[in-house]
Every structure is written in C-alpha cells, then in structure tokens.
Amino acid sequence: MKNVLISGGSSGIGLELSRHFAKNGYRLLWVAKPAAELDAAKKIIEAEISGVVIETLAKDLTQPEACQEVFDWVKKNDHSLDVLVNNAGFGTYGFCNEVPVKQELNMIELNVVSLYKMTRLFLPEMLEKDAGTVINISSTSSLQPIPRMNTYASTKAFVRHFTLGIQEELRIKNSKVKALTVIPAAINDTPFQQKAKMHKVRTFKGLATTTAKEVADDIWKGFSNGKTLIITGWKMRALQRIRFLMPKWLQDYIIRKETEITS
Ligand SMILES: NC(=O)c1ccc[n+]([C@@H]2O[C@H](COP(=O)([O-])OP(=O)(O)OC[C@H]3O[C@@H](n4cnc5c(N)ncnc54)[C@H](OP(=O)(O)O)[C@@H]3O)[C@@H](O)[C@H]2O)c1
Questions:
Q1: If one looks up domain 2-258 in CATH, what number appears?
Q2: Element (H, E) at 3
C-alpha cells in the first residue's frame, strides 16, 4: 500500500486532497493539532470510502521537536512515504506593525520552519529510493508583496522559492523524485479565513476565488501528470496570464483593494 502524509489533512484542502489519495488506494497519514478534529474527519472519510486506512497523530508542528516526532512515528509504524504533502498553515491579517509579533513568529514557525524540517526529514529516503513526491502548498499571495498580509505572503514566497529550487536540484541530479509547488487562489470555503479573521477581506469574495475541492482536484490532476508547478483555479490561471499586461500601479491598486475589509 502506498503512503501519503498530509499535514493538516483533517481540514480544508488537506481533507479534500485526502479523498483523492484514499480513492486511489493510498494509506492516509494525517498530522494536525486537535485530536478531536482528526477523529471526526477520519470518521467522515471512513464512511465515504470503504477500505480506507487512516492513521492520525495529533501534533502541534510549531513545537521544536514536533517534526522529528512525526518522522519517528512514521518509522515506528514501519512506513515509507510515497508522497509528503506540507499543507498545514495559517495566516495573519493587519499591518505588519500591528499584528502581534508572537502570532506572526508562530506562523513563520509553521508555514516556513516546519515545512523546511519535514522536507529535510523525508527527502533523503525518497532520494535513496529514487521515487516519491513532495507537495508544498504555497499561495498566490507569494507572487507579489501583499499589504495587510505581508508576513503571511512572505512565508508563502519562501515555500514557492524553496520548492521550485528543490525541483531544480532534483533535475540536476537526474532524480525521479518530484517537488510540486501548489499556488492556490483565495479559497472561500475553508476555516482558514475565519481563523485568520480575514472573512471580511474582499479577496475571499473576489472574482478569482476558488474552493477546497477545486484546489484538490487541480493538485490531484497535476500530481498524476507529473507536474511541478500548479496555479489552482481556472479564474486565477486566467488572471495571472493577463496580469503582466497591466502597468504596475494598476496591479498594486487592485491588490490594495483586494486586501481591504468589506462590510
Ligand atoms: N484558504 C485560503 O484562502 C488559502 C489560499 C492559498 C493557500 N492556502 C494554504 O493552504 C493550506 C491549507 O489551508 P486551508 O485553507 O485548507 O485551511 P485550514 O482548513 O485551516 O487547514 C489548515 C490545516 O493546518 C492545520 N494546522 C494549523 N496549525 C497547525 C499546527 N500548529 N500544527 C499542526 N497542524 C496545524 C490545521 O489544523 P488546526 O485545526 O490545528 O488549526 C488544519 O488542519 C495552508 O498552508 C494555507 O496557507 C490557503
């Protein structure tokens, strides 16, 4: 049985993506913070997909030893990963000098440091087998500076840059291992915006918003076709094509408007 480890697998994109992997015979290894959420999501997927195997570990990935403990858990259960999905992440909203430093440091710890550690822990084994895929979830906010979501966008810029760089290194090594960079647009149906108190931000009701299902469908299609970069959602793909035809002042104006609170 193939194994996929999905951080944040019990919610949003992670849960939708889990459905694809489970239907295609993968064992799901989920890591997320609250055990209750993991248990509830496990029951949902088990009721939907017969024969699915789900193993869960409640872990706060911002804790210093957490990623190593995840690695040890996988090894203790005698599993070898075919796919690692670094999906767990959260955002903050507000001008950089106004958002609590502690909250943003915690976000950097999850979105950047834990993703780096998980990739470093599981990549060597994939290289040794010359097989496997690391899927890292970035964001369209990584494509340019975003006022009021500056630190979040910067964490996602790290994810995009780091993952594209790994893919280039894999190409140089002639490795069959793949690194897939995923760039979702704003999603209107996951708990992400509520958690980040961003639900009134215009971009989540904007023209190019997408859904967790559309993101997961695009990831699955891209993964199955061996793609290394995916912008999810057809509306965002179209927008990114025409973006470069706009003068910079217009791009900046649109982004400023998109990040404002609406009533
Ligand atoms: N929603 C969007 O508009 C959007 C757009 C582009 C990219 N993304 C990215 O997509 C990814 C998934 O987001 P989503 O929209 O699916 O949101 P979500 O439903 O909130 O999923 C995030 C997952 O990460 C887990 N998580 C959060 N903090 C954690 C921690 N300290 N340790 C372990 N797990 C933790 C969450 O579990 P808890 O219950 O513990 O919080 C949850 O399962 C994130 O990386 C996000 O940045 C989202």
A1: 3.40.50.720
A2: strand 2-7
Domain map (residue ranges) of the chain? 2-258
65-87 pLDDT tens trace = 999 999 999 999 999 999 999 99
Question: Candidates 65, 90, 189: which one to mutate for ligand 1, based on the most atoms within 8 Å of Cβ?
Answer: 90
Give the residue from 132, 8, 1 showing the smallest Cα distance to 61: 8
- 109 CB within 6 A, ligand 1: no
The alpha carbon torsion through 125, 61, 101, 157 (nearest 10 deg) reads 40
The answer to whether the CB of 255 falls within 8 A of the CB of 233 is no
Would the pTM count as exceeding 0.90?
A: yes
The pLDDT tens digits of the residues spanning 208-232 come to 899 999 999 999 999 999 999 999 9
Ligand 1 pocket, residue 186 CB under 6 Å = yes
pLDDT of amino acid 207: 76
Q: Region 55-59: what's the mean pLDDT?
A: 98
pLDDT, average across residues 28-56: 97
Say if residues 183 and 138 touch (Cβ distance below 8 Å): yes
Which atom of ligand 1 is nearest the CA belonging to 33? 40
CA of 125 to the centre of ligand 1 (A): 26
Cβ atoms within 10 Å of 49's Cβ, excluding its own: 15
